[in-house]
Amino acid sequence: MMSESIELAVIGGTGVYALAELRGMEAHSRVTPYGQPSGPVRVGRLGGHRVAFLARHGEGHSVPPHLINYRANLSALKSLGAKRVLALNTVGGITAAFGPGVLGCPDQLIDYTWGRVSTLCEEPGSEVLHVDFGEPYTPQLRQSVLAAARQAGVALVDGGCYGATQGPRLETRAEISRMRRDGCDLVGMTGMPEAGLAREMGLEYACLAIVANWAAGAGPDVGEVITLQDVLDNVASASAGLPALLEAV
Ligand code: HPA
Question: Which amino acid positions bind phosphate, per UniProt (predicted)?
């Protein structure tokens, strides 16, 4: 039974496995019609607000991007009463405005993933959905996130195109050059099918991208090797303003 509604659901990405600021946390572990989510949904209070948190890769980062049960994750949040989902996505930066440490709120995306369960219409007999996806992120929620960032004094780049790649390997320099020509500003592995499924489920959805590194060949040091440790270190420093921003959302 839901006593109070959840005002915001947050899906944490690489390097964001918990929201330590959540108070009075309850854990909800539930199997959904789509199977098992990546882990428990933790519901608690952030400031005066009821917030749900789910670690996309599992709390021990055990689920790679292509094996995440995106449908179950969103379904678990929806079944707890969430209507607005803010996705935290760790990304590489492609264009000049998106260097390591930058936070961005993209307004477009291109999907380069393949072989993932990417729709609710997977099962025979399920209703065929052709949802509008011209604006892949909910404009109203994006505006709330941008306003919250201003209120919290957190620098956030408004707009940009997120390119979703298959992973789990990082990209080649040629792949990033192609993505730049396509119009991508950011590259990550988990933005799709999550955004499309959220739209099919009728959830408001926006992305808060945390730039952890220059994408392959995009930074000043073209031969730079990207390590997971660099990614985690940069996410940790870029995330300092997150609790204040989330509370304001
Ligand atoms: N490419 C894809 N996904 C990522 C990257 C990257 O460079 N950095 C963090 N997630």
Answer: 14, 56-57, 190
Note the pLDDT tens digit of each residue in 235-244: 888 888 888 8
Q: Does the predicted model carry a pTM greater than 0.80? A: yes
Instruction: Transcribe 161-209 into DSSP letters.
Output: EEEE---SS---HHHHHHHHHHT-SEEESSSTTHHHHHHHTT-EEEEEE
Instruction: Read off the DSSP letter of residue 66.
Output: G
SS3 21: coil
* 215 CA to centre of ligand 1 in angstroms: 6
**How close is the Cα of 179 to the center of ligand 1, in Å?**
13
Structure tokens at 159: 């707009």
Annotated binding site for phosphate: 14, 56-57, 190
Separation between Cα atoms, residue 78 and residue 128, nearest integer Å: 20
Element (H, E) at 231: helix 228-238
